[in-house]
Amino acid sequence: MFLAPGTGAVAYVAGRKVGNAVRRNRARRILRAAWLEVAPRIGNGYDAVLVAREAIRGAKTQDLVAEMSQLLHGEIMHP
Q1: Spatial separation of the C-alpha atoms in residues 38 and 51, rounded to whole Å
Q2: What is the mean pLDDT of each successive set of 10 residues along the chain, which is 79 residues long?
Q3: What is the largest CA-CA distance in the chain?
Q4: Single pTM value for the model
């Protein structure tokens, strides 16, 4: 996850190491679903790039929500 001050734009990226097209699309879908749950907590002042890695295989949206929340907890939610 990469964040920068901005307009609230978001990009979801999954490279070939994640798997075939079906797996990459699934990775982007669950990243998008997780971000939609987390984003309202941080506001619209940041642009984000969410990058799927090989470890995303088999992960569920709620797993990613928990991880994103933990990553953002110290960075944005409590500056």
Answers
A1: 16
A2: 90 95 96 93 86 92 91 61
A3: 39
A4: 0.83
Distances (CA, A) of 58 to 5, 30, 34, 65, 72: 31, 10, 14, 14, 22
Phi first, then psi, for residue 68 (nearest 5°) are -65, -45
- C-alpha angle 24/69/75, rounded to 5°? 110
| Residues 71, 15: Cα–Cα separation, whole Å | 22
Strands 2-5, 46-52: pairing is: antiparallel
Contact (CB, 8 A) for 10 and 47: yes
CATH class of 2-77: alpha beta
Residue 22 burial (CB count, 10 A) = 8
